[in-house]
Amino acid sequence: xxxxxxxxxxxxxxxxxxxxxxxxxxxxxxxxxxxxxxxxxxxxxxxxxxxxxxxxxxxxxxxxxxxxxxxxxxxxxxxxxxxxxxxxxxxxxxxxxxxxxxxxxxxxxxxxxxxxxxxxxxxxxxxxxxxxxxxxxxxxxxxxxxxxxxxxxxxxxxxxxxxxxxxxxxxxxxxxxxxxxxxxxxxxxxxxxxxxxxxxxxxxxxxxxxxxxxxxxxxxxxxxxxxxxxxxxxxxxxxxxxxxxxxxxxxxxxxxxxxxxxxxxxxxxxxxxxxxx
Amino acid sequence: xxxxxxxxxxxxxxxxxxxxxxxxxxxxxxxxxxxxxxxxxxxxxxxxxxxxxxxxxxxxxxxxxxxxxxxxxxxxxxxxxxxxxxxxxxxxxxxxxxxxxxxxxxxxxxxxxxxxxxxxxxxxxxxxxxxxxxxxxxxxxxxxxxxxxxxxxxxxxxxxxxxxxxxxxxxxxxxxxxxxxxxxxxxxxxxxxxxxxxxxxxxxxxxxxxxxxxxxxxxxxxxxxxxxxxxx
Amino acid sequence: xxxxxxxxxxxxxxxxxxxxxxxxxxxxxxxxxxxxxxxxxxxxxxxxxxxxxxxxxxxxxxxxxxxxxxxxxxxxxxxxxxxxxxxxxxxxxxxxxxxxxxxxxxxxxxxxxxxxxxxxxxxxxxxxxxxxxxxxxxxxxxxxxxxxxxxxxxxxxxxxxxxxxxxxxxxxxxxxxxxxxxxxxxxxxxxxxxxxxxxxxxxxxxxxxxxxxxxxxx
Lengths: 277, 232, 218
What we know:
The complex is a heterotrimer.
Chain A: H1 3-27, H2 37-44, E1 46-52, E2 54-55, E3 59-61, E4 67-68, H3 70-82, E5 85-91, H4 96-101, E6 107-113, H5 116-119, E7 123-124, E8 129-138, E9 153-157, H6 162-169, E10 174-178, H7 181-190, E11 195-199, H8 200-209, E12 214-230, H9 235-250, H10 253-262
Parallel strand pairs in A: 1-5, 1-6, 9-10, 9-11
Antiparallel strand pairs in A: 2-3, 3-4, 6-12, 7-12, 8-11, 8-12
Helix pairs in contact in A: 3-9
Chain B: H1 5-42, H2 47-60, H3 65-80, H4 86-112, H5 115-123, H6 128-158, H7 170-181, H8 184-212, H9 215-224
Helix pairs in contact in B: 1-4, 1-7, 2-4, 3-4, 4-6, 5-6, 6-8, 6-9, 7-8
Chain C: H1 8-12, H2 14-48, H3 51-65, H4 69-80, H5 84-109, H6 113-121, H7 126-156, H8 168-179, H9 182-217
Helix pairs in contact in C: 2-3, 2-5, 2-7, 2-8, 3-5, 4-5, 5-7, 6-7, 7-9, 8-9
């Protein structure tokens, strides 16, 4: 390879990238979204929902290879109410918002915590569940919370808020980041991580799966609301989802699904807002 | 170690394997066509054609396949204004990535055909494109068949990376199973064995083809590369 | 679809990009050295070994280059239980060493037989012959191919993000997760990868010049 040729090529390439970026930056706002997703979904006859496939009890793959979970049952209810079929797409914490924004999916029901940072980019439905964060640790470890994690290694998955929280609460902890949740559990079992921080519900399931070896302890965060995320500036679509969630609460389905998937009682005081007088 | 997880979950993993094969075959066929196009473009005497194509090819071969996959995942909907399923994004990423490698292989193949062939073809009245199609390319392809097979092996292995954007090919399918059963030695050992059997098998076919070519063209394929390296 | 470009996120999160760059350089450079050492050893030994041992080296080469690198990394990290950094280096080195072994072997094969015969005739033992006659001449021939292999190590290091190494590709996702500006992040990281490859090419050209002086001029 000749050096001067490479210099020329790198320069030309950078010039092309800059030009391209400027052109697309100028042209793209013109492609503003006009239609509402509600019409698109009804026309298509299918609701495309982004769900987790590695996150029991919200979205996971059962023995038969089917995708099941709390989130799946909720979107099934919404699809039935809209009179359309349901098409599930697997998403991860890291790629769920891009998949929504690039219109691959119509909504994401992927255990997404409602945060202000995210609200600036997407729009959330009313909360459909509240879940607190906890720690999954090895059963014989004496870890109780952020204070006992100084100098220890904490695992979490990329794209979740636990990394930021960990930095804020325990700057002296080491971070170990994975793409899938079960990989974090495996790291915990192998001793590569001393704790795995995530929402309480899946941690309980992981602890049950490895009865005796793992325990759920402490409080990584107070109970936080989760919502269904949709693209911004699409009120008709968001309303359709909210009305479905409220109907699900009203006819008792929500409570049944909660008992079925999470097994215990919901956080006291939680209700899905009921606007009907 | 629980070996029964393999037969119990075989149907699911085989489905993933089927997708792997489809991805590999489709992207290979598509990139054969585009690769030939780019190879010929890069041989153009016109500087304004040759240089941008050259830059594109060289840059594509320098960035990791994962980055190309991410690029198309983020970029395509912005460019086209349409939603893109992960599998389409994965296919396009694989095709574009492989095109740059195929272009270089094909360009090498074209150059390995002796110049007199082109001169003879042109002087018998064939235009440039027809000479290419009927005389040069057939000989070039015969020369580079082993290199193409090597590239296919690399592509086959590369499909394991589209797992990152959620495409359930063989590797992700196996991963999903392991995430439930936690039998890492068994599952990943199985995955390694399957890939090994497929890729080694393909390379044996490549070697066999190499032996069937006559000694003269054998020398020229050796000149290309020992075996083009697989990279993600 | 609306997409507002915001290149300032790259400046705000420059620490992430820097961390990623350092991690990539760390993993890649150690893997390059290791794979070169192992690959040279395997390639040379394969060329000169008699049959039973030869098959051992053939098996090594064929196995490690026909299993995708991501599968190898997962095996070392999740099955064997090595740490992120160690698993990544071992996996990358094993994979690339198989390719480098082939490169080295063909480089040695291209040396005229007369060189070997002359070396033996002047009384050099096998190790001496390899050290003073074979390797230097092979080295010059394989510099371009080695360049490609080293760049491949850098490219394959991107896979290490799946086992917890926070290298460049990981940081693309990280910036994306925090700011939702995937396009800008991907552009920056792409440019960084190109620059790394550039460094390797320059470095190899210098090596080639040094080798040429040493072998031809010396």
